[in-house]
Amino acid sequence: MIGKDKILSTLKTAIKKSTADQTEAIFIGGENGLTRYANSTIHQNVSENNSKIYFRTILGKKIGVAITNSLKREDLKRALDNAMEIAKNQRENPDFVSLPSKQSYKKIKTHFKKTASFTPIQRAEKVKEIFEKAKKHDLDVAGSFSTAESEIAVVNSLGVACYQPLTSSFINIVVMSGNSSGYSEFLTRDVTTVDVEKLAEVAIGKCLESKNPKGVEPGEYDVILEPAALANLIEWLNYIGFGSKPLQEKTSFMADRIGKKIMGDSISIYDDGNDESAMGFPFDFEGVPKKKVTIIQSGVAKGVVYDSLSATKDKVKSTGHALTPDFSEGAIALNLFVKAGNSSIKKMIEKTKRGLLITRFHYINGYLDTRNALFTGMTRDGTFFIENGKIKHGIKNLRFTESMLKAFSNVVELSRDRKVINSWWEDVGCIVCPAVLIKKFKFTGKTEF
Amino acid sequence: MEDKIKVTIDYLKKKKVDYADIRLQKKLAESIKVKNKNVESISRNEDQGFGIRVINSGSWGFASSSVTTEAEMKRVANKAIQIAKASAITKKENVVLAEQESFVDKYQSFYQLDPFTVPLDRKIELLLNSTQILSKSKKIKVAEGYMGFYKTDKVFASTEGAYITQAILESGAGIFATAVDDGEVQRRSYPGSHTGDFATRGYEFIQEMRFLENAERTREEAIQLLSADPCPDTTTTLIITGPQMALQIHESCGHPTELDRVLGTEISLAGGSFLTLDKLSKLRYGSDKVSITADATVPGGLGTFGYDDEGVKAQRSFLVKDGLFVGYLTSRETAPVLKQKSNGTMRADGWNRIPLIRMTNINLEPGEWELNDLIADTQEGILVDMNKSWSIDDKRLNFQFGTEIAWEIKNGKVGKVYKNPVYTGITPEFWNSCDAVCNRKHWRVWGVPNCGKGEPMQIMHVAHGASPTRFRNIKVGVSK
User: N or C: less crowded end of chain A, CB within 10 Å?
Assistant: First the structure.
């Protein structure tokens, strides 16, 4: 850890040298470790110590961005000079008004000392426990277990100066027999809450229960999606539709539909970056405080998340969802929640006459038809056939091709329990999901395992 | 810097590790994105650091840092050793590396015009002028242009005596028109989808793309798609153009032939492979028209380099020969499983990542057909172009691809345009249905700059040589 004072003073000193009208500097850095295993042995064990400093310089309405990963004075100066040179050569951005001014932020706990000090040996010992549990059933284990400590700071010439230390830990476990597999995962800021015994039991149970899978034909099935499977779908919905850019460019399923019903009554989705229980982080990468944003309310499209640039275009205020300035895809919702219901996976199974229980999806692609949120993807690591209210057997994996607007209109039950599922934004984001029961979910292909 | 590297290698030798290497890398990147007559973003990124990989107590450890002082190198070396000791807690067998000549060499990728010396304004102008042509219709709601350039300098040194420096320059660009009307969204890209086409070449590669000459056609096809009929659901003959073949090769041949994946080490993220060891030299992967090579020596290919990140010299080998599955992409650790030496495919996407088996230029070798003759020879079928969506199961068997555009082929002629084409299949069945591959005149290497693998995720630059190729009895559409 470099520490708050040193980081903020380094960034402030750097931007003082800028001759731009406005200047912003962002620090993202830290030390992280990851232990990766397969065939019940550690095959990769890595550590990284890195920092990135982003400069955004503004000349009128011209914006230049340059990045360095060196804190040396001369490297910082060169990066700032690069940003200035780019700004000079840039064209005016009509949507730019100003960098954010001084803000205040909610205090939330994002740093846990025990995560920060967790060692590779501690990770290896935890992982060994999983291997030993699986070995009792003659099963193999693959997965990864990471721990990270980082610092994020944003400073600009208008008075923004925010800093937040953070930790994170993620573990995923795939347990395999010769013809089946089971999965579990856990994401947290506090590594002491990782219960490897419980996680191993879940993955082992799924693997054993899905042994000797039978083939079923593609077609429409009622499906129970466990939280990880639902999160896999939400992740793509977010990517193609919950941000401001696809709305403004009219390429997403939300475009021209704000205020209209696009999903079932039971579906409410919101983003809340200040929620400590879900990898919350109090500000975005422009130093704007995170605001709670309702995206879908009782099936009605309510709104999207904004950064400063896209907010100006729609004459609204930023919701605090800017990413780093080199990311040109616009604002992204990082801390998504799907509202819980009052059911449970057990009750959903009991109510299902003929359907499938899905642990997670693999390789979803949501680019097929973004206006209708048509997705395809495969089931993976624990897919089960349900008949007359009972799990009958594991099945070979299936490919779905389905409109998510249709699928989310056909949700009939959501569980009370929700899980924090990892997303593409591991350190500062996640998706909190219940399990859902969806009627008539369409599968279009099958595979051999 | 050479002194610091040598001091660190000596230090690791004194620590009596089984093996160690150090890879120091400096990368300069520039990206320019133009959208709807505005320059949406320009950024320049300087990134440097080093990674140390050790085998100690028979297990791997890797540590890395962006601080390149001698003291930090020593700290990181010790950390890598400690991590290796942690890995050994679950060790089943000692890591054994295939023998390898320790090269002392320099490599420089070939280019004519360094893109970092081309004035920024000139690059912006080309993209703005191109997107202006794309924007000439009100139906084009998003007109985009992208350029990306990377200059990488790296040094590899090992306790076995290797010392290799490499300088690799990469350039790429593309233009993209998104047409929107009445709830319909359609997109055409040129010359490749996603971020365009990339190569280990200089700015001359961008100039050869001739954006201004190709923008109008790109725009008109996007508009044409808005009112096109949906691609029918059918089982038919499919002719796939080069850029889509690149993705087809990537997903259904490149990834499943990665030997680390075959041995299970990618299970937790992207899955395994159906090409298990028992299938080597036995499985008829494709028809006799199908020969696929891994060739890191193709001039200008995005997967071209001098040495991989284990110091193994770039080479060409067959993965599939006349339809028979004959080889894997290997590393020094995995090759001994086959009683072979590494064929040089271990690469890391930065100093802070451990090298993994990655595709190089994975090429479907050209056949004998002229494209016109191939179309004339097709009574009924569909011609598809340019990737739009991609998905494949976790053993690389069941795939589904969407492309930007399709055309009907009837009685040997290209007919009307279809929108939203999707085709699907099972990998070996699909490749065994291949009955024609176009010749070298139609063959080129397509750069894919966004291949994801590993935890932490690594994005690798790879490429695929391909020409238009014909497949019989392919399932098109997903409604039936």
Answer: N
